[in-house]
């Protein structure tokens, strides 16, 4: 039982991290035919920036909601 209790956060975080990484890769490659032109690199940089800003906004919103309901400001269990 102690082993399952230690593995339970991993059983939750690994699928979430995998889906997040897959979505990140799909978002980065969105609108690109290849990386042969300078314009493609700019689109890749723009996609990267938008994904990072979007995730930062989601985390900020999560912290605001946690603060509003009185939960402590933390990401862990």
Structure, explained:
The chain starts with a helix and ends in an 8-residue tail after the last helix. It has two helices and no strands. The model has no long low-confidence stretch (mean pLDDT 82). It has one domain. It is an all-alpha fold and 77 residues long.
Summarize the structure in short.
With 77 residues, the chain is mostly helical. Helix content is 78%, strand content 0%.
Question: How is this fold's topology laid out?
Answer:
Layout: H1 2-29, H2 38-69
Helix pairs in contact: 1-2
Give me some keywords for this one.
single chain, 77 residues, mainly alpha, 2 helices, flat
Mean pLDDT across the residues is 82
The low-confidence parts are: none
Gyration radius, in Å: 18 Å
Helix content: over 70%
Structural category is mainly alpha
Residue share in β-strands: under 5%
Global geometry = flat
- Distance, first to last CA: 18 Å
Number of helices: 2
The main sheet comes to: none
Count every beta strand, where a strand is a DSSP E run of 2 or more residues.
0
Taken together, the total number of domains comes to 1
The SSE string, one letter per element, is HH
């Amino acid at each position: 039982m102690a082993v399952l209790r230690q593995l339970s956060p991993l059983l939750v975080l690994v699928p979430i991290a995998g889906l997040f990484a897959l979505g990140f890769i799909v978002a980065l490659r969105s609108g690109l035919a290849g990386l042969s032109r300078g314009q493609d690199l700019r689109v890749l940089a723009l996609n990267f920036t938008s994904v990072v800003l979007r995730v930062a906004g989601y985390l900020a919103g999560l912290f605001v909601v946690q603060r509003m309901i009185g939960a402590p400001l933390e990401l862990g269990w």
